[in-house]
UniProtKB/TrEMBL annotation:
PANTHER family per the UniProt record, alphabetical: ACETYLORNITHINE AMINOTRANSFERASE, MITOCHONDRIAL, AMINOTRANSFERASE CLASS III
Protein name from the UniProt record: Aspartate aminotransferase family protein
The protein's required cofactors: pyridoxal 5'-phosphate
Family per record: Belongs to the class-III pyridoxal-phosphate-dependent aminotransferase family.
Keyword Transferase: yes
Family annotation (InterPro entries): Aminotrans_3, Aminotrans_3_PPA_site, Class-III_PLP-dep_AT, PyrdxlP-dep_Trfase, PyrdxlP-dep_Trfase_major, PyrdxlP-dep_Trfase_small
UniProt keyword terms in alphabetical order: Aminotransferase, Pyridoxal phosphate, Transferase
Amino acid sequence: MTTTTKLIPVQDVLDDRLRPQQVRDLELRHGNEELLYGLDLLGVAGPFRRLSPWELEDVGGQRMIMAASYAATPFGEMHPELTEFVTEFMAKNRAMTLPQQSLSPWRAALEANLVALLASQLPSHADSQVFFCSSGTEAVEGALKFAKAWRPNASYFISFKGAYHGKTYGSLSLTPNPEYQDIFRPLVPGALTSPYGDLEALRTLLRRVGPKNVAAIIVEPIQGEGGVILPPTGFLRGVSDLCREHGIVSIADEIQTGLGRTGHWFESAAQGMDPDIVTLAKPLGGGLTAVGATIVRHGIYKKMLGGLSSKRHSNTFGGGALSMAVALKSLEMIVEGDLPERSLKMGAEGLERLRRLQARHPGLIQDVRGQGLLLAMQFHPMVGLPLPEPAKELAYEATAILAMRELHLSGVVANLSLSSKRTVRLSPALNIPEPLFGELMDRVDDFAERNPKASSIMSNTPPDLLARLAAFAVKKPKKRTPSDG
Ligand SMILES: Cc1ncc(COP(=O)(O)O)c(C=O)c1O
């Protein structure tokens, strides 16, 4: 039966015939309306058009420098080296596209290269094995299952305050953020939280629950979504040592930090950790495809997927030829561009500039943090009065949101942090040309010159926009479809 439904022709999208207003209407109608409406009110929703891998054009025609995308675009938007490779792949590839239970040259090469890269930093991983999936949260789910299968009688998992590991049930249970967790309780049982950076508190927690009852400890080498929080020196090595001492599986969640973002191939290894499991995603897909990976020590891998149990954990798309090929090419581009080293150096310059900016505008910027090209600014709350706790956090959040708008007006696309309402992050592409990086930092200066104090952020926001944002913040989501009730 042929359908009479009028569909949007793919060619219309390809040929750029969908007008921005149409895109907005469709997205608000059928997508995440509330999120996109809020961003649209702020004027930061786009849709953007790519001018170069590192520059976008806003709907109003303004040229923007890209410093967002949650650290997932190592080469910016559709870098020609990557897209030319994809074109060549499409023309030449003869391997199965979704090999699943077959051998695959693309998967084989990526497994080998990832393990070789990890083993070059941590030789104990020379015979590790890799499980592929299609997102960060799925890589974490895999890690948790590997750990549980390794220690089936242990019922606890430990993560850290401020952590972000994803939003599917297992990873969400270890992302201790009431905003994301509360409505979904009860969560996966056994999730415990310890303060980030505090080894003594971790030891106390282990003594309280009994180390043999703990399956795994999962840690971000630097908390990205938590607001770019760097742990004290020795913390990660200490976590690793404690895990080894008690036979607990150590998981380094390198989904945001790994593959060069923070200036090293694996930030955990650079900080003296020797994790049993490493999770990767974001940059692995080159900003083009969805690829996640869980790299696991041989013995732990075999315990879950050994012998007849080898189908105990599986998926349809993990290991697909296109995503493997893009990931292989991405790794090669990171190696050839020496991007971890470059990120470390440019990030240090960027952080220095942010520090100088903070010194010039102490009434605006409360703190700057970062390593490599993962940089963060925290602003003073724009309402100066001493506020009680929930209102204080709200003031920080409103400041960060409006600061993102002000940065946008200065031509910078920045990100908020998912688990820290106080922070605006800058995470440009690892290969951003130096002059453009300089211009990005100049634009951040311009933003600060226009907003010399936190209160200026509010006074620079038009009153009618403030009123609409306030109304949006307190209104209940609309009921739109019959199934919504
Ligand atoms: C450290 C870390 N783990 C896991 C995730 C979840 O990844 P995804 O959004 O691909 O599910 C993120 C995403 O920001 C992350 O930063």
